[in-house]
Amino acid sequence: KTDEEDANGAQAAASADGAGLAATLAQPLGVRTRRPATWQRIQGQACKVPDFLKHRLHVGAGGCSAVAFSHDGTLLACAGAQSSNSYSILVFQMTGIESPVVLSLHPVARLTAHRGLVHSLAWAEDDSLLVSASADGSCCVW
To answer: What DSSP designation does 14 have?
Structure first.
């Protein structure tokens, strides 16, 4: 079954017994629900969750408010506050990702257009664009 067929079947089931009808009706038409991703290690497979610090970035005196890795894993965007009225997004090129110990981050861009704290960052699927949303009410496409 496709995700859409599953969603339609779930809506029909919810409608048939009356349970969850309000939740079903609240969902906009045409919205596809995603199945949760499931993953488990194979017996004997080592856990690859990192347990040591690889690198620490100083994004700004006011701290870091949002981060986003590009889909290909080579760029890292970090939003931060340099002061109480200065906000920017730093984009870093990452090298040495394969190494368990060595990771290098090289700044490639400083994006400054927001006048408030940046709350969210997201890369386009092909990593050609970065979108940022800020407390100043703006959304920027870079």
So the answer is: H
